[in-house]
Sequence to fold (363 residues):
Amino acid sequence: MNIRQAEENDFTRMMEIYEYARKFMADHGNPNQWGPTNWPPEDLIHEDIRLGRSYICEDDSRVVGTFCFVYGENIEPTYTVIEEGEWKYEGPYGVIHRIAGDGSVNGIGEFCLDWAFDRCGHMRIDTHGDNIVMQKLLEKNGYEKCGIIYVEEDDYPRFAYEKYENGEKSLAWEEIKTEHIIQNEWIDFRESTYRFPDGREIGPFYSYSRRDYVVIVASDEEGKYLCVKQFRQGIKEVTTEFPAGGIERKDGKEYAAKDEVNAPEDVAEDALETAKRELREETGYESDEWEYLLAVPSNATIADNYAYIFTAKNCRKASRQDLDDTEFVDVIKHTEDEIEEMISKGEFQQAMHIMAWLLAKRR
Fold:
């Protein structure tokens, strides 16, 4: 089976399924949930389709089930008040309404519930007190009865159920399409489309891969901090910052392939060698007192590379600078107070370097 969003040309088939469901309910001791009001009304189903919250369950291209699914913060107003109990978990949740199958395939209800839960990890749902079939289905699939709620269409109480999965699954996006806008030896810049936890497919989103790098908070034997001044084309200004540089990969690439997974701790040793090299090349200083502080995503919103933060103490002058052809770098020493003042005035213009400074001062 598979699930897709409903379209207007599914409407007639959906109403046939609801007609079957009303008869099934009545035959199984639940005549009052949908029967007296001929629920759900046609206008509501048209609205569900128009708003993109109506879904179809197919089996071999046959429409065998349908439901409404929504996700968000306080998405269901009737769940605001719950009696004889309480909801167990806070935060955004998904809700299934108007779930029905045509009886031709076993497991339609469970399949639809699992589909919805896989997309959000936190579900709330209600069912009529006489709907024993649905209550058993929910309890079989790990839903916990939390209390009683009431709906607008009638005065019958509804049992309220909830299911929650610890972790981040309820917030995760699924990447379903990727186009490499630029992919050369320096950068992999991508345009992607994602499926959101509520099932919507949204794009474009942009991200890139570049190589990991190091940042070194280095101090000399007098306790002054080694900084460098250089032009940064992003803000088109000369900045003051700490020595830093990219980690050279063993395969010669500038960045990892998108599907490579390298834990930060696995490459910390290579990062240390890079830090020693960058300090020596940019400043001419060396140190025997190195400490690895942290590996942190450089910009988790749009990039997948990491910054590796180190301190180097009692640095001593060992050589002249050894800069690349494209590097124009001056070395300048600052006291702790001077760096604090530059940060407070917005004159230390690298966010990751400020983070490195704060981490180093905590040691």
